[in-house]
Amino acid sequence: VQLLESGGGSVQSGGSLKLSCLTSGVARRTAYMGWFRQAPGKSREGVALFCESGDIMYTDSVKGRFTTFSDHSKNLLFLKMVNLKPEDTGMYYCAASGAFCGWETTLYSSWGQGTQVTVSQ
């Protein structure tokens, strides 16, 4: 399993970014996928999860601003982020779990290398 994130960058508060995660070796229709982020000095936290088919969950701080969706035909997972805030700054990762869906990072066995998102005032 390989996951490769891209699309990060530096934006001002209120700006937008769209992250991509290219997957290989992942049975996308059965795997649980998630987006996580880690700010400097903080623990990695879940941002958005794909659980059962069609069931997507967002952490409260990003609801209404972040949207995740996938293109199975291209093995791509996306995270569209609008109205970004400085507190959204961090390294963003996509992750895959073969068996479980949840916010705990330990549930996910495969991780990408991350893409940096920096939001300035």
Descriptive report:
There is one protein chain. The model has no long low-confidence stretch (mean pLDDT 93). The protein has no helices and eleven strands. Strand 7 and strand 8 (76-81) form a beta hairpin. Strands 2, 4, 5, 6, 9, 10 and 11 form a seven-stranded mixed β-sheet that branches. Strands 1-3-8-7 form a four-stranded antiparallel β-sheet, with no helix packed on it. It is globular and about 40 Å long. It is mainly beta. 0% of the residues lie in helices and 50% in strands.
State the helicity in percent bands: under 10%
Q: Total helix count?
A: 0
Order of helices and strands: EEEEEEEEEEE
Number of strands: 11
In what range is the share of β-strand residues? over 45%
Oligomer: single chain
Structural class comes to mainly beta
| Low-pLDDT regions | none
Query: Rg from C-alpha positions?
Result: 13 Å
**Euclidean distance between termini CA atoms:** 37 Å
The overall pLDDT average reads: 93
Q: Tell me, what's the shape?
A: globular
- What characterizes the major β-sheet? 7 strands, mixed
Describe the SSE topology.
Elements: E1 2-6, E2 9-12, E3 17-24, E4 32-38, E5 45-50, E6 56-58, E7 66-71, E8 76-81, E9 90-97, E10 110-111, E11 115-120
Parallel strand pairs: 2-11
Antiparallel strand pairs: 1-3, 3-8, 4-5, 4-9, 5-6, 7-8, 9-10, 9-11
Short description:
This protein is mostly beta strands and 121 residues long.
